[in-house]
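Progress report, Aim 2. The chain analyzed during this reporting quarter is listed below.
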Amino acid sequence: MKVIRRILYWVVASALVLLTFWFGFMQKPTERLEEEEEKKVPVEVETVSVDSIEETIELTGWIKANTVVDVASKVPGRVESLHVLSDAGGLIPVEEGVSVKKGRQLAVIDHDVYLAQLAAAQASVDAREVEVADAEREKKRIIALYEGGSATEQSKDKAVTAAELAATSLSLARANLELAQVNLRESTITSPIDGIVTAKHIDEGNLIKSGDRIVTIADMKTVKMVVAVAEKYAAEIAVGMPTKIGVDTFKDRKFDAKVYSVHPALDDQTHTVQVEIRLNNDELLLKPGMFARVTLITKRKDNVVVIPRDVILGGKIDKHYVYVVEETSPNKIAHKRFVEIGIRQADRCEITDGLKAGDKLVVNGMHSLTEGSTVEPVRLEDIK
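Predicted structure tokens for the chain:
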């Protein structure tokens, strides 16, 4: 009986094993395919391309007018007129915001008074010329009498001295005439530069002294910024280097500029180098006093492989790497590709080695991958 029970036990056990294997191999094909599909990792893939990239230094500063001039009076008097002469020949009242051109009239100071002083100086010159002519005739007459023995040497000396004094008086009168001409000319105040009136310091009718400011004029067709660059970047800055300027007023626009000058010495306190940047402002969009963000472009490369910075993995312990997808029938396989990074710009990086244009780069879902993973390219929203 024991032998029969042992035989029955083994028969039953063998039957159970066979049934288990049979059910495993006889699963529906669709169920096995679904299991295989579950093993594929969904990823988003982009084709690697070439682009331009720049290495930059980010700085901040304040916009200034290229030239600012305080126009002052060189002569004292009353401000008779405070008007700008327009292109059409008319007079426009001087106010903040008025455009002026170099050499155009801005103000007139006691014009009639200085005109009268000029006339008086001219009359003085005329009188001194008559005196000189009379003294010269008298000198010649006395010298002739002296040579004939009819005049004393003392008389001759007096005549010569009188002629010399008359000539000196004429020179002084002519100097006063030139001064009167200068004062008359300076009584008409003209603009020393092309620009815009940014401040008016006095009103028409007021009395002013020599040196009093009348208006301030700024040349804003060109604006500038002076920024402090850290010592470690000093060797990278050069005159003519391209820069981009951004201001809060025009958030979606960047203004092209260039480095105009680099100070030859570093600041003793901050150990920074002063760099002046200038840019055209023909549209007058940029105003002095605006806060600006400066991007100094120290290096630029064109037609190089550029990829998003966040697709690059590793770098702390091992080398930087990315995942690329290669199609191996019937599946798409992800492979780890070690890369060398060049220029970094914001959220982009140049790849100098390890990738080429046309490679299929995993840009989303790469954190779920390992070497040789089977992947299924999908859209970003499908991954989420």
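Confidence is low (pLDDT under 50) at residues 25-36. The chain is about 30% helix and 45% strand. These observations will guide the mutagenesis work planned for the next reporting period.
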